[in-house]
Each structure stands twice: as C-alpha cells, then as structure tokens.
Amino acid sequence: MNFPSKLIEGAVEELAKLPGVGRKTALRLALHLLKEESEETFQLAEALVKMRAEIKHCQQCHNISDTDICSICSNPLRDRSLLCVVSDIRDVIAIENTAQYKGLYHVLGGVISPIEGIGPSDLHIESLLERLPKSEVKEIVLAISPTMEGDTTGFYLTRKLRDANVRITTIARGVPVGGELEYTDEITLGRSIVERTNYGKV
Amino acid sequence: MNFPSKLIEGAVEELAKLPGVGRKTALRLALHLLKEESEETFQLAEALVKMRAEIKHCQQCHNISDTDICSICSNPLRDRSLLCVVSDIRDVIAIENTAQYKGLYHVLGGVISPIEGIGPSDLHIESLLERLPKSEVKEIVLAISPTMEGDTTGFYLTRKLRDANVRITTIARGVPVGGELEYTDEITLGRSIVERTNYGKV
Q1: Using CB atoms within 10 A as the burial measure, which of A40, A69, B8, B56 is most buried?
Q2: Cβ separation of B51 and A17 shorter than 8 Å?
Q3: For chain A, what is the domain count?
Q4: The domain spanning residue A121 has which CATH number?
Q5: Which of B30, B34, B64 sits opposite A5 (nearest CB)?
Q6: Nearest to A51 among B21, B30, B97 (CB)
Q7: Residue B167 in 3-state DSSP?
Q8: What is the ipTM of this complex?
Q9: Is A189 a member of any domain?
Q10: What pLDDT does A154 receive?
Q11: Confidence of residue A18 (pLDDT cuts 50, 70, 90)
C-alpha cells in the first residue's frame, strides 16, 4: 500500500503492530484520528505512555496495579482464606466482573506450553509456593482455561501443592447458562451429568 | 467493567474511542502493550502524535500530505490534463494502489448528505471550481461511490461543471472482476449490459 504521507505511513505501521489490526484497519484508525480534534490523539498517546511507564505488577499476586500491592490484595474486606489461581490478568478482570468471588488472586502469567517453550519456571509458580506458608489461605481455586496447556498447568500445580495442606478446587465445568444441550460438546455435557448438582442450588 | 488499575482504565477508555474498538478489544490492546517492550508503546504514541501534529492537507487537492503541496500534485510526471474527483483520502490511496491512474486528484472531503447536515458548502467544491480555470485539466473523472449521497454529489458537480469546458467521465460500473453474474445485483448487471464494451478492450 502506498501512502501519500510519510507521517501517516509511520502511524499506520505502528498501529498495525497491534493484535487484530491489519494495515487497512490501521489506516482507518489513523484517518479517524486525523478527522477528530488533535486533542483526542494527544490524550490517547498520553494515556498509553502513562500506562506503560507507570503501571506496576502487584508484588504479591502479580496482577497489574497502580501501587506495589494491588487494590485486591490490600483490601481488608477480601476473604484471605481463598486464593484463586488464574493464568492471565484478563481472567482476574473477568472473575471480578461476576462479583461472585471475594477472595484473593494469584496470576501465573501464562500456562505451561512446551510448544511455545513456556515451562513452570517461566510462570509465577515459585512465588505462589512461597506465598502460601505466610498466608491464611485454606482453599486454592484453580481457574485455568480447560485447554491442553491449562490442564497440564493445573496438574503440575496440584502435584506441587500436595503437601501444602490446602483444599484444592476448580471452577465448575458444565453447560453454560443459556446454552442449549443439543449444541454442547459431548465432553462438557458428559461432565455436566457426572457432576450434577441439586436442583435448588445456585 | 472494573479494572484493577486506574492507568489501564484510562488507556482502555481512550482506545475504546477508536472506531470499531469496544472496551473488550481496547483491554486486549492495552494488555498487549503491557506485555511488549515499553519502547513499542512509546513508538506508537510518538507516531500518532507526530502524525496528528505535523500532517498537512495539500492546498491544491486537499489530500493529506507532509508538505503544503502533496507529492502527487508536485510530481512533474503526472498527467495534468486528468483530474479525478473523490470524496475521501482513502479513495486516493485505493486508486493509487491500482497503478492505473496517472492524473491529479481533488478530494471533496465527503459527499452531500442532507441527513447528516452536509451541504455543498461543507465540501471542497468551491476550490475545485476555482482550481479549474488556472489548470490544464481537460477531463474530470468522477470517482464517487455509487450510493444515494454519492450520486447526488455527482449530479451536483456535473451541473456546476457544465460551463467549465471539460469532459466529465465517471468510473465504469459493472460486474466486478472475479464476480459471478448470478450473484450480481440487477441494477449492476443491467448497467453492465447497457454499457458493454468490446471484448478485446482491457
């Protein structure tokens, strides 16, 4: 693609590095910014730079944070006996948005994936094991996506946590709310029957 | 959506102002930037700010440009007897990418749309009419999208250009290359028959 301006070409090339943004989308975004007030672009750029330069990772749970210890870890109202282990920051946000969980988190920063060269030492597993004895945690909730890599990570963690004297649970698998039985895959449907719960239970 | 950090919330809010970017996508982009080297974010921000602050519009054709007169208008190899009228900068880029057009351009900056409150005076029509007598233009190619608004704009222009002593043409309408007759709409197919060309003509 030829551009009439080196300036727009530079912006398009940078925007096209973002995931899911091709050169056509990048051009659309750049032209949008050119149509809007320049203040819009400056605010966007400032917010990105500020975020990248100033954001921290919580020293305890590795969640992103504005402070050394994140707002969840430092909240006295959270249940310190519950620890939810997730692979990614996005999972923390997703679970927080359900408003159903009041415990603490631990973000692994990925899952074990030999294909991508990610081993246990690349994840925040060591810090999880170090954190436990000093904590009041009685139950660890593994909330890792049920993929091959996720299950491997879960299996590795349960072995590592065998001697930790905590209950290990995992999020329920089953037919999604609003999902139709007919279109649910066999493994999920099978598990939802084996792990059936009392009708009244929410 | 609750965010664990005000910094990421700020970035997500700014990113979500971009067209086609919702809050979920914005979060994905922000988290991507956090995973990459901070240099990536700084380069993106700098490219956007630089583009917005320094880009100009060509004083002659209103295309975006790094200089007062754009690289197309100032190129001595372009055919100055041909002037292609388009509604948007994107159309210039699209036509340039075909490498089939060697004339000049005039960017209207939109189309006449009473619903959106865009009248002829909001477009670069006056500057087109002023530009013509001083130019060597012999043919004006109207390359405006064949929508209701586009056709209205084209009709308005042909009336305004009636006394300009230039040939007025428009881009060919017909079945797209690679398109199947069966799936072509009736108006396009009808026009492609009425305006049929010699078989050997490319």
Answers
A1: B8
A2: no
A3: 2
A4: 3.40.1360.10
A5: B64
A6: B30
A7: strand
A8: 0.80
A9: no
A10: 94
A11: very high
